[in-house]
Amino acid sequence: MSEKTNVKKYSIKMDVLKTFLSFAGTFQDEIKVNITTKGWELKTVNPAHTSMGAVTISKNHFEQYGGQFETVGIDVGIMLPYLKRLITHVKGTIHNVLDITFDKTNEKIILECNKELMTMRLVDTNGITDPTIPNLGLPIKIKNIDVKIFKRAIKESLHLSTQLLLKIESIDNKNYLMGIADDSEDNGGMDYKLPICYVNMEDKHTGIKSLFTNNMLDRLLTNLITGKITLEMDEDYPLRLTWILHDDIEFMALLAPRIEDD
Q1: What is the pLDDT of residue 261?
Q2: Which of 6, 145, 156, 240 could form a disulfide with 232 if both were Cys (CB 3.0 to 4.6 A apart)?
Q3: Bridge-based pairing state of the strands 51-58 and 108-113
Q4: Is the distance from CB of 73 to CB of 120 less than 8 angstroms?
């Protein structure tokens, strides 16, 4: 690869990049981004291999797109805090686009906005796992869940426990997706239950449940303030969540269940 093709430049709105990095940082601090002719692709897994994520920012979201560039390594723990400070600094101005130059020759990333420059190292991607996202074929698929209600269940469970039980439960002969938590520390014997949404499905699915780490769910949905999510699940199988941000960017997360001892 020539020195010229070792340097590529991309320009993207800062709020889009922030959402992308925030999602990636939920899984690990150092990420490998595959830059293709179609966009930036990310597949990532956390160190414990209990959660996976995938997202693609299509080239249509870039003001300037330098083209295919194999893979680049980004330290989210360094870039994201700087980006947040920069967004605060330029708030209310016309400067909402960040220029990103990847210089593989000098192993640098150069960020530029309104003549302000920040340079950081390119991360070596050799040790970063590029996971295969499994096709689980989960039998329960619930669309158009109001994220505000789902996050309400997550937030309340955090006050009681480290986990949230998702269960298909019948109330007055109608099936609902329930969010359930109890007081694991026994600080008053509290229990919490919230019907997240009505589900129109066969009775054979009633009673299906899985337990998940609520802190991870909370972190995954940090950037999703309003909107809808799609949830797929089965008894003691990973939970699959998908949602759309910035009009057409689909985020996907898989979260392993916590198996209760009999």
Answers
A1: 59
A2: 240
A3: unpaired
A4: no
Distance CA 31, CA 72 (A): 8
* pLDDT tens figures, 142-166: 999 999 999 999 999 999 999 999 9
Q: Taking the domains of the chain in order of start, what are their residue ranges? A: 7-121, 140-233
The SS3 assignment for 18 reads helix
Could you tell me the pTM of the whole model?
Answer: 0.90
**pLDDT under 70: residue ranges of the chain:** 1-4, 184-189, 202-203, 260-262
β-pair partners for 241: 231, 253
Provide the CATH number for the domain formed by 7-121 in this structure: 3.10.150.10
Q: What share of the chain is helix, strand, coil (3-state, %, to 5)?
A: 20, 45, 35
CATH code, 140-233 = 3.10.150.10
Cβ pair 154, 164 in contact under 8 A: yes
